[in-house]
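Give me the fold.
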Amino acid sequence: MKYIISFALLLSSFCATAAPSEVLRCLGAEEQRLHKAKSQGPEFQLNQQLISELIQVESIDLSPTYLSLVCNYKENYPSKKLLYLLLDKGNKIFEFKHGLSASDISVGESMLEDFMKDTQGIVMSYIASIQQEAPTADCLKKNIPEMELFYIDMKYLEEEIETKYLFKDKGLAEKILNKLSNYPKLFKKCMPQPEIKKTDKSGSTPNRKKS
């Protein structure tokens, strides 16, 4: 499923309905920054996925406390912080906008439930996108033991098994994401190490024998 959708285009869909939520404005600002930096990596892909999903649930926004945590995230990646909060707190981080009718709230609750189900797929997609950036195929597996269980869940997802059976232990995803918080540093462990030339007892490198 393609998630690369411009926030500017999505924003236009609100012209005839409602104003975009504050969290969407925050993610939109992140998208513009990543686009300006010509970044197409895991963070950009995560940003696009979350925007694509949240644009459909226009009746909700983050509560002020969580909005501040997301938009003022020290790593400057609001999408990552939002993903962590979704795993840790679930739908408790959201609140419905003021002035909605009972019917609007009922529809919003249903759409929010669908979004929370899709969160598992977003988590797995984000981790998979980091895997694609790794210098070796087994880099993450070697440095993060929990990845073995993640790959099993990925297999189930590819076989279209009900997502409710995935990530029964949400701590698994949290552990993996925490260890991937600085994945460029982790990647360095998997880079080929330069060969160390052998030296003789005097400390000099022995000459090769001439043929």
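The radius of gyration is 22 Å.
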